[in-house]
Structure formats: structure tokens, C-alpha cells
Amino acid sequence: MSFDMSVTMQTIAELRGVTKTFGNVVAAKDLNLSIGKGEFLSFLGPSGCGKTTALRMLAGFEKPTEGQVLLDGEVVNDLDAHHRPVNMVFQHYALFPHLSVFDNIAYGLRQQRPHVDKQTIATKVEQALETVRLGGFGPRRIWEMSGGQQQRVALARAIVNEPKLLLLDEPMAALDRKLRKEMQFELQNLQRQLGITFVLVTHDQEEALSMSDRICVMEGGSIVQVGSPRELYDMPRSRYVAGFVGTSNFFDATVTDSAADQITVRLASGQKVHGTPEIPIDAGQEVCVSIRPEQITLTRALPTAEIALPVTIQNRIFLGEHTEYLARNEALGDFHVLVPRQAELNEGTFNAGEQAFVSWGEGALLILEN
Amino acid sequence: MTERGRKALLLAPAGIWLLVMLALPLLVVFVFSFGERGAAGGYVPAFTLEQYANLPARWTAFKNTLILAPLGTIAALVIAYPLAYFLAVRCSPKWRTSLLILVIVPFWTSILIRSYAWIFILGGRGLPALLESIGIDDIRLINTPFAVLVGIVYGYLPLMVFPIFVSLDKLDKRLLEASADLGSTPWRTFRQVTLPLSVPGIATGCMLVFILLMGEFLIPAILGGGKVFFVGNALVDLFLQSRNWAYGSAVAMTLVVVMLVTVSIYMKFISRLGGQRQDVSLM
Ligand SMILES: Nc1ncnc2c1ncn2[C@@H]1O[C@H](COP(=O)(O)OP(=O)(O)O)[C@@H](O)[C@H]1O
Ligand SMILES: [Mg+2]
């Protein structure tokens, strides 16, 4: 599902030049971002890059040092968390240990003024429990729930308030792999079903890629690229993004020619490659080229492609539907190659020590800033 | 060694201690309380309920103890809670340790000396003189129940602050954010999250202070000036001055029973307050 912010969506939240410093640590630097109503947006980046800080500013737990946070078109910098129509699923759930599952979920409704009547609260809580598939668990105590169940309670506690924005801070970090996969599907279904805008923070690229409409990649407190998972994967703007969204092979290159719409770079192996980078790059500059493992073809015979490099197979790992090879070229170094099952049937498997060629189709090779 | 053996070994020192230092003396006191006073004091074996029949003569001591011990506990709680809350929740970690040390510093001097200091503060040339200078005359503070109350609250405050501090310090601060996130004002967050989760600390602190206050004798002796005395003072008098061991034993046994009754009522109340939570530690 592609997501075109500018056309289809009404903006529900916005960061305008938002900077946050703690002492002399700059946790977030000049963040600019529009969040569309009903979208599923993820902040992706390694630990410490400022994701949680960005989320906490949306929730109202942190005040921006500079810039503005907008909700529904209004600046909310000075609006306390308890006045914002925003709810959060905390990293370690932060469920109230002294309250039952029911009371945890009812907590938000009970804070509303004028009071919500008991019957309505009971109905809504039951409904929320059903939504997260915990029907009948209301009277349970929190410590009687497993990690996965606690996570659902945390989710129910947030969605029962029908927030304009649901913030999730690494909600699945504490779950085991299998449960995490399940929850990813469920979260995505839930988001579609409820139509609530989700903002997720994660350092797990797979999580971000599989669930989000758009991903906002962060590095050292700054946003480095925002786009749909496909855009980020196919058109990363920098080596950092290409490395963080999916895996890739990177090789150093030097720019030899730089025209308005096309530049030429020379690989360490001598071949010249043309491309159109996202950002203007001057001749003489050191850049890197990136090629995804699954876009490389491995053959025994010299292929007809523009560039084909001789390699020696180093290693083979069987991954089920793919086989991963490590192939070494004298000049460039190691290539990771993913060969799909189907191709394996034609070419047969390669053994360590065997000679082969790597090649790729047009446009597969990207020229990126270092 | 078997699991049982190991458990027994762990419990042995405390068990022997309790047996020798608590159970046996208690038994002795129990037996003595049915005896008689010898001609030159001390104890003469007998079996009579006479000592228990004489209890009403010491009614004032029981009354004072039963009023001032709970009152002192409540006053200490009211003063200690905000302090503990500030230290655990609001205070920056930079200052916390130094302030905590300040709370215990008084323990470095004997309670005797500190209570004497209060004689001067509450005595004629202390606070009353100050009050007189602003036109409030004829206030007597020393040797009143008020003076004793001030003394016991002052003396036992740290014992109340620490358990509450610990329970508030343990409290996951993200719960407070979660509460705010769900639309709760700071005051309601305090009532619905902070307070219930600090009940174990409150319970421990109150229990500690209350039990110790029931046996207190030093502070009433110094600040009550013989006019406000506790059961503890009566015991000192009976055992050490008039050497009426049998009567003293009856008074002591009665105090033990009163304490057991009040503490068990208190436990019932607290466990209801804490709901059916498993992790409410009372002691
Ligand atoms: N309350 C705070 N006080 C001081 N530094 C903080 C605080 N919160 C975050 N930081 C710092 O800001 C940076 C970004 O943190 P955070 O937003 O939590 O990153 P992430 O969620 O991406 O791991 C880190 O260097 C962190 O140490
Ligand atoms: Mg984080």
C-alpha cells in the first residue's frame, strides 16, 4: 500500500523545526515531519538516535527546546500530557500493578470529565479486551498475565480512549521472536480496523518495513530520510539508510564526472558506472555504491551484462527459499549474494573455492553519499 | 545436608535468640504476674489474681499510651510522607543522598541528649518566651502531653521516613507518566497510583513507630516531667523503684495483650486497604 501524504491525507500531527537538548546532549535536531491522519508511521534508527525523545515530545512528556509540536493544527508545546488526545504504549508497558486488567484498561475512561458512566466504561473495556483477544481476562491481576498478554493489555488501555495518535515505543522489544511476528500482524490489522494514527518507534528494520506506511529514518538526533518502505529500500539517500533498511553490499568509488542529471563514478576495480544520485555530488568526491544481495546474479559463464566481475565463492549458507553466498572479488572485496531457490535449480549450487561471475541488471547499482 | 536441615540451620540463630531472650522472659513475667510482692520487694510465688485486680490504679498510664502512641504515629506519618515523597520522587538524585543522610544525622547523638534539648526549646525561656514577645501569654509547653507528642514525633520520624522513602523510590516512575498519558491530573495520579503503591511503606513505618511508641518511657520521662507518663514509665517505677515485681509483671502482660490486639486490628485494616495484593509486605 503506497501512501501519498500530500494528496490523500489530512495532517494530524506535525513537528516543525523541533530540537531537544538535555544539558549538552542534543537528543533531537531540527525535526520536521508531518504525520497524516490514519497512517502508520515508524521512527527507525539505532539505540540513542532520538526516537523516544521525538515520541515523548508528541506525548507531552518533553517540551521542545526549540520549534513547535502541532496536534490537529494547533501548537501544543505548552499542553501537558494529560490534556493531549494522545496515548502511549510504553516500552515496558507500565501497567498499574495494583489494578486488575479491567481497571487498568478503564483507567483512561475514568479520568474523563464529565464522568463516563459505569455501564459505558464496562462496555468499552469489554470491547477493547475483545479487540486485543483477551475477552474474559478483565478480573485478572497484572502479574498473572504473560509478557505477550501484558502487551495486549497495554494496547487495550491505550486504544480504549480512541486517541487521535497512538504512540508505541518499541512495543515488541520484550517479546520473543515468534510472538513478535504475530503481534506485528495484529498491530497492523488493528490499525486498519480502528483507523487510529499509529506512530511506532523501533530499532528493528524488519518491524518497521513490515508494518509501516511510512518510515522516518533517524541518525544522531536528525531525520535522514522519510518515505514508504519501498522508497527507502529502492531509493535510499545515503549509505546509512541503505544499510539500515535491508542489507546491502557497499563499495567505495570516486566520482570522475558530474553533470546535472548524471554522474560517473569509478570503482576500485576500474569499471565506470553511471547514475543519478538524489543529491548533487561533485567530481573527485569519494562516494559509495550499493547493491542489494538479491539483485546480484551469480553465473558460471561470463554473462553479457555491462559489468561482470570474476569472483571466488567463499561460503554458502542455506536459508530455505534462498541461499546466501559470500563471493570475493580481488579488487572490490566481498559480495553477499542471495540466490533464490528457482535460480539455484538452473545454475546448480556453487561450492566454496569455485570460480564464478557476479553481475546485475541496469539500475540495481546505487550511488550514495558516504 | 537436606533442604530441611539447611532451612533449620538458617533459622537456628534467630530461633535460639527469640527463645532465650523473648519467650522465656515472657513466660517468667507471665508466672510472676500471678505472684505476690515480698516484704522487702521482689517476688514471692503464689497464685492470685490480685495484681490484675489492681490494674485500674495504673489506668492513666494506659490511657496516655493508648492516646499518644497512635497520635504520635499519625503525626509522624503526616510529617514523614511529604518528606519521603520529596526525597524519592521530586528531589534531584544529586541532592538525594545528602538529604537522606540529614534525616539520619540525629541518630548520631543519643535520644537522651536530643530530648533534653527539647526541654530548653519548650521550656519557659524557649518557645513560650518567644510567643510572649508577640503577645501570646501564659503558654505552658513543657511537661504537657503536647511536649511528649513533639518529642516522640521528633525521635521517631526517621523510622517513618525510611520505609516510605523505599516504597516510593521503588515505584516505577513510568507509571506516573502512564497515568498522565491516560488523562489523569497530577493530584489524581497521586491518589490513584502513588499513594496505593506506597501503602506497604506506610504500613511498615506505622507498625514500626507504633510498636516502639507503645513501649516508650524515656521521652515521656524527660518531656512529661512526671505529669505525662506511659505504661513504660509505670514499669520502670514498679520494677526499679517500688520493687513490686508481681504487679509490674501484670502491667507488662496487659501491655503485651493490648499491643497484640491493636496490632492485629491494624493489620486487618491495612490488608483491606491494600486489597488482595500479594506483594503488600506488612513488616
Ligand atoms: N531525560 C534525559 N536526560 C538526559 N539525556 C537524555 C534524556 N533522554 C534522552 N537522553 C539522551 O538523548 C539521546 C536520545 O535518546 P532517546 O530518544 O532515548 O533515543 P532512542 O529512543 O532512539 O534510543 C541519548 O543520547 C540519550 O542519552
Ligand atoms: Mg528508546
Automatic annotation (TrEMBL), chain A:
Q: Which PROSITE patterns match?
A: ABC_TRANSPORTER_1, ABC_TRANSPORTER_2
Instruction: Enumerate the Pfam families for this protein.
Output: ABC_tran, TOBE_2
From the UniProt record, which GO molecular function terms apply?
ABC-type polyamine transporter activity; ATP binding; ATP hydrolysis activity
Q: Which InterPro entries match?
A: AAA+_ATPase (IPR003593), ABC_SmlMolc_Importer (IPR050093), ABC_transporter-like_ATP-bd (IPR003439), ABC_transporter-like_CS (IPR017871), Mo/tungstate-bd_C_term_dom (IPR008995), P-loop_NTPase (IPR027417), PotA-like (IPR005893), Transp-assoc_OB_typ2 (IPR013611)
Q: Which SUPFAM superfamilies match?
A: MOP-like (SSF50331), P-loop containing nucleoside triphosphate hydrolases (SSF52540)
**Which E.C. number(s) belong to this protein?**
7.6.2.11
Question: Is Nucleus there in the keyword field?
Answer: no
Per UniProt, residues of the ABC transporter domain are 13-245
Protein known as: Spermidine/putrescine import ATP-binding protein PotA
Protein family per UniProt: Belongs to the ABC transporter superfamily. Spermidine/putrescine importer (TC 3.A.1.11.1) family.
The protein's annotated catalytic reaction(s) are: ATP + H2O + polyamine-[polyamine-binding protein]Side 1 = ADP + phosphate + polyamineSide 2 + [polyamine-binding protein]Side 1
Q: Name one GO biological process term.
A: putrescine transport
One cellular-component annotation, GO: ATP-binding cassette (ABC) transporter complex
Q: Keywords assigned by UniProt?
A: ATP-binding, Cell membrane, Membrane, Nucleotide-binding, Translocase, Transport
Q: Which Gene3D superfamilies match?
A: 2.40.50.100, P-loop containing nucleotide triphosphate hydrolases (3.40.50.300)
The species this protein belongs to is: Ruegeria conchae
Stated role: Part of the ABC transporter complex PotABCD involved in spermidine/putrescine import. Responsible for energy coupling to the transport system.
What is the protein's quaternary organization? The complex is composed of two ATP-binding proteins (PotA), two transmembrane proteins (PotB and PotC) and a solute-binding protein (PotD).
Automatic annotation (TrEMBL), chain B:
One BP annotation, GO: transmembrane transport
Q: How does it sit in the membrane?
A: Multi-pass membrane protein
Q: Which Gene3D superfamilies match?
A: MetI-like
Q: Which UniProt keywords apply?
A: Cell membrane, Membrane, Transmembrane, Transmembrane helix, Transport
Q: Which residues form the ABC transmembrane type-1 domain?
A: 62-268
SUPFAM superfamilies, sorted:
MetI-like
Query: Which cellular component terms (GO) are annotated to the entry?
Result: plasma membrane
A Pfam match? BPD_transp_1
Annotated TM spans: 9-34, 66-87, 99-121, 141-166, 197-225, 245-267
Where in the cell is the protein located?
Cell membrane
In which domain of life is the source organism classified? Bacteria
Family assignment from sequence similarity? Belongs to the binding-protein-dependent transport system permease family. CysTW subfamily.
Q: What is this protein called in UniProt?
A: Spermidine/putrescine transport system permease protein
Q: What is the lineage of its organism?
A: Bacteria, Pseudomonadati, Pseudomonadota, Alphaproteobacteria, Rhodobacterales
